[in-house]
Amino acid sequence: MLVRDEEMTFMRNRQATNLVFELSQPGRRAAAYPACDVPARPLSELLPSNQLASQSPDLPELTEPDVIRHFTNLSTLNMSVDTHFYPLGSCTMKYNPKRHERLASLPGLVDLHPYQTEDAQQGMLAILFELQQMLGEIAGLPAVSLQPAAGAHGEMTALLTAAAYFHDRGERRTKVLFPQSAHGTNPASAAIAGFDCVQLKGQADGFVDLEELKAHLDDKTAVFMITNPNTLGLFERDIAKIAHLLHDVGGLVYIDGANMNAILGITRPGDFGGDMMHYNVHKTFTGPHGSGGPGAGPIAVRDFLADYLPGPIVTRTQLEGATRYQLTTPPKSIGRVRSHFGNVGILLRGYLYLRTLGAAGLKAVSEQAVLNANYLRVKLEDVLPVPHGERCMHEFVASAQKSKSEKGITALDIAKRLLDYGYYAPTVYFPLVVPEALMVEPTETESQQTLDDFADTIRTILNESPEFLHSAPHATPVSRPDEVKAGRQLVLRWKRHCARNGK
Ligand SMILES: *Cc1c(COP(=O)(O)O)cnc(C)c1O
User: Fold this and answer.
1) For the residues of 389-452, what is the DSSP string, one character each?
2) Which residues of 158-194 are buried (b: 16+ CB within 10 A; e: fewer)?
3) Rounded to whole angstroms, how far apart are CA atoms 420 and 477?
4) Do 58 and 123 fall into the same domain?
5) Which residues 6+ apart lie within 8 Å of 501 measured at CB?
6) Where are the beta strands (DSSP E) in 203-275?
7) Confidence band (pLDDT; 50, 70, 90) for 494?
8) Is 370 found in the same domain as 340?
C-alpha cells in the first residue's frame, strides 16, 4: 500500500515541479475573446517603433485547466501544521485555530491604519493594553513592551533595556553569560547589543554547572541568559539558586521564553528569579509561522526596568468617568525598535488565543503538551533512547546512536524518510550535546492516535534496509541535495529554461 501511495505522490510531485514554461505548448489558450468588432491594425502603425519590443514576451501557452492544476499541485508540496504532523522541536509548531484567523480579519481590525487618530484607535489600543496585562501576569513580570518583531528581536531589546539600566546606575557591566545549550540567537543578540559573550560549559546531565557559573560571576557580569525549560526539554532545577547567584553580584537573569508552552499557568519566570523575558507569540500563542515569519516577540521585565522599555507602551487612564487608552513613551526609553505598535496581526492572534482559553485553559495547554511529549518519549525509548532525564517537559531529545551503531541508520536517515510517510521531520543534530539528536515536540493538540501512528512509523523505518534509507526521501521532488552547495550555488530553473531557449 505504502509503495503505491509513494509512487503516486512521487508522480504528482514530479508533475508539480515542472515550470509553467516547461508545460507550454504552442497555440494553447486559456481565454476565448469575442471576435474583434473594429478594424485590426498592426501595432507598428499605432506606436513609434522605438516603443516596440523586438521580440514578443516569452509567455507560457496553456489551457485554463493546465494552469489551475499546475498551481494547485504546486501548493500541495508544502508541509504545514494544517496538513501534516509537525514535531519540529524547539519551534513549537502549534495548530492555529481557524476561529482566530477569522476574528483577526474582522474589518474593524484589518482596515485600521496606525496613522489614524488615537480616538479612532481606542478599540485596538484596548486589545493591546489587555494583552500587555495578560503577558505581564503570565510572566510574573509586570512591565511589557509589545514592540519586538520576534524572539531574537526581543532578546536584543531586553539586553539594550538592561544596558540602559546599568548605564543609568553608573555601572559598567560588559559580560553576558549563557550555557552551552543556548539557542544561537542568545549570543548573537548579546553581541549585537554590544556585550562580550561568555559560553559556560554544561554538566553531563544537561543542566547548568553551578561551579562553572560561579567562576564567571563578578562585577562585570550584566546578564545570564537561559532558556527554561531548557533546550533538552528539562526544567532547570537550580534556577532559583542561579538567580540568587546572579543577583548577589548585581547581574540580571534573562529567561528565553521560547519554551513557555510547557509551563503556562504552572510557574512564572518572575517567580523563579527571571528579571526579563521574551515570548514568541508565533510559537506559544499560535501565530501562524514558518519559513521565517511573521512573528512577535514581546518582552516582560521587572518594575525597576520599566522606565527604559522601548516606546510606545499602551496605558489606560480614566478621563471624566470614561476609560481612555493612550500611547506613552517611558521616561528613559531606549527608543523605538519597531514601527507603530509591533506586529499587530500576530499579537492579535495571541490575544484571541489567550481570551479563548482563559486561565484554566492555558494551564491545560501546558499539562497536555507535557503529557503528549512524555507519552511519545516512553513509546519510543526502547528504539530511540533519551540520554538526558527521566521525565521531560513539552519536548524531548532522543538519540539515534543505538540504531546508528547497530544498523547504520542515522538521525538524518530517519528524518528524511519520515517525509515519505507524510510527517514533517523533528529537529535533528541539535542540541549538540546529544549525539544523533532527534528533538521531538508533539504539542498539545495532537491526538493519541497521531502519536501512536508516528511511533509506529518510526519503528517501521528502523526495520527498513539501511541502503534504502540512505537515499530517502523517495517521494519528494528533491531528495538529498548537498545542503552547503545548494545554499551557495542556487540553480534556478528559470535561468536554465532561458539558457535552453537562447534568451
Ligand atoms: C525560536 C527560538 C528563539 C528565536 O526566536 P525567533 O522568534 O525565531 O526569533 C530563541 N530561543 C529559542 C530557545 C528558540 O526556540
Assistant:
1) -SS-SS-EEEE-HHHHHHH---HHHHHHHHHHTTBPPPEES-STTSTTEEEE---TT--HHHHH
2) bbbbbbbbbeeeeeebebbbbbbbbbebbbebbeebe
3) 11
4) no
5) 58
6) 221-227, 252-256
7) low
8) no
CA distance 176 to 189: 10
Q: Cα of 293 to ligand 1 centre, how many Å?
A: 12
Note whether 288 and 148 are same-domain residues: yes
Tell me the CATH number at 274.
3.40.640.10
CA-based nearest residue to 299, from 321, 323, 269: 269
Burial class (CB in 10 A: 0-12, 13-18, 19+), 36: exposed
160 found inside a domain: yes
Output the domain CATH number for residue 365.
Answer: 3.90.1150.10
Flag the least confident range among 6-20, 53-67, 193-207, 229-243.
Answer: 6-20
Which residues does residue 398 pair with via DSSP β-bridges, in sequence order?
438
Residues 405 and 447 in one domain: yes
- Establish if 81 belongs to a structural domain: no
End residue of a domain, out of 358, 374, 401? 358
pLDDT, tens digit (0-9, with 9 covering 90-100), for 244-264: 999 999 999 999 999 999 999
Report the distance separating Cα 304 and Cα 247, nearest Å. Answer: 14
Query: Which candidate, 323, 319, 301, places its Cα nearest to that of 310?
Result: 301
Rounded to the nearest angstrom, the distance between the alpha carbon of 239 and the centre of ligand 1 is: 20
CA distance 257 to 270: 12
Query: Would you state the pLDDT for residue 368?
Result: 98
Q: How far apart are CA 271 and CA 349, in angstroms?
A: 26
Whether residue 364 lies inside any domain: the answer is yes
Kindly give the distance from the C-alpha atom of residue 342 to the centroid of ligand 1, in angstroms, as a whole number.
17
Q: Which residue's CA is the closest to the ligand 1 atom numbered 8?
A: 151
241 CA to centre of ligand 1 in angstroms: 25
User: CB–CB of 396/386 below 8 Å?
Assistant: yes
Say if 84 falls within a structural domain.
no
Expressed in angstroms, the distance from the first to the final Cα of the chain is 45
Residues of the domain holding 467: 360-488
For ligand 1, atom 15: residue with the closest CA = 90
Residues 260 and 319 in one domain: yes
Task: Give the position, in ligand 1's atom list, of the atom nearest the Cα of 154.
Answer: 9
CB atoms closer than 10 angstroms to residue 450:
16
Q: List the residue whose alpha carbon is closest to atom 14 of ligand 1.
A: 258
User: Average pLDDT over the chain, rounded to whole?
Assistant: 93
pLDDT of residue 1: 43
Instruction: Let me know whether 181 and 258 are in one domain.
Output: yes
pTM attached to this predicted model: 0.89
Answer whether 236's CB lies under 8 Å from 229's CB. yes
Lowest mean pLDDT segment, chosen from 146-150, 363-367, 499-503: 499-503
Instruction: Please give the pLDDT value at position 10.
Output: 62
| Mean pLDDT, residues 330-340 taken together | 96
